[in-house]
Amino acid sequence: MESPEEILKNALRRVNETMQQSYLIPFISDVESTKSAELISRNPQNRAAVRLVLACALAKACDSSRDARMPYTEIGLASAFSGRTFDEKYIGPFSLKHQLPVNETTAFLTPALRNQSSILTPDLNLVGRPPVVYQSALQLLSAVESSDISAENLLAEIIRWLILLREEKKLRLNSLLKEVRETGVGALPLSAEEIVILLEQHLQSPNSSRLPVLIVAAAYETGGILLGEEIRNLESHNAADKQTGSVGDVEVFLSDEENVVTGYEMKMRRVTITDIEIALHKILAHEKLQNYIFITTEPIDKNILEYARSLYESTGGKEIVVLDCISFLRYFLHLFYRRRTLFLDAYQKLLLDQPDSSVPQILKETWLTLRQAAELRPERTTNA
Prior knowledge:
Distance between the termini: 70 Å
Number of strands: 5
């Protein structure tokens, strides 16, 4: 019997061999099932259903006595299994290794699936969005269980669609990136204020909660070396501080030390007293931490500023500060004015390197489009 890793490796091999001949050859003969596999693989609103189907198909391929529709041990039948285990242990690492465009985290913790203990039949309402994606996923699992399609072929078919989507996304980003680079040739560098406007526009995009983290990280990558400070690798966007043991969204340490001296926490809402009290517990637990900085995209209440300021003496000289994101950005760009283009490029690289679960593809494309538009301003071309 093949191991889960071997089954996935063989599925990928089959896909690569087929793609050398044609990207359009499906592994499933049934047209409706092929359409369903494409739908769950490519839908931009829901990236969880595809991991659900991959996990269930893999479990079935490993042991034919399992029921692909029963990924919950709570069902209590011999044919049931832990879909979350297959998802986290095998599908997650496989997808990460091959850069497949799926969620970073398991499908079985999404609202539609985490409290389930029912057999996943097509008549089950999973209350997920969009409904058609979950309906297609349930139909595929039933087709596997009825032997209309094999689990191995379903794995290969979905991997095929995910690779197609991955390559399409890369092609679009590379094309836009090339246009941005070509547009910047022979033009004056964007001014600090133009960069501020550009970032303000990007922050106004939907699903932009990761962007303030990238702004601060890019600032330290650009100016940190001059300050003798560096940042730790950014944690997953979905990872809680309790899980990672981190102080905040961005952690700063002195170049010649390992201890975190500054923690940044980003808020796409107003900072509250409760936020500050939680931060207070964190900084008291970290002896070397010197200051904790909130970066918010919303207005800051005066009482919040006063409360944060009042904690300096009681913490033995550890300072809590609340700053506006754009004000932070503007001050940094003028302080390190001659490195403003380095900052812009560092932000762009961090942005494009983020997984789609942290920064959706559309947000990356929006950035490149906005930057190209800024570079194209007629008054910015130079004759000098």
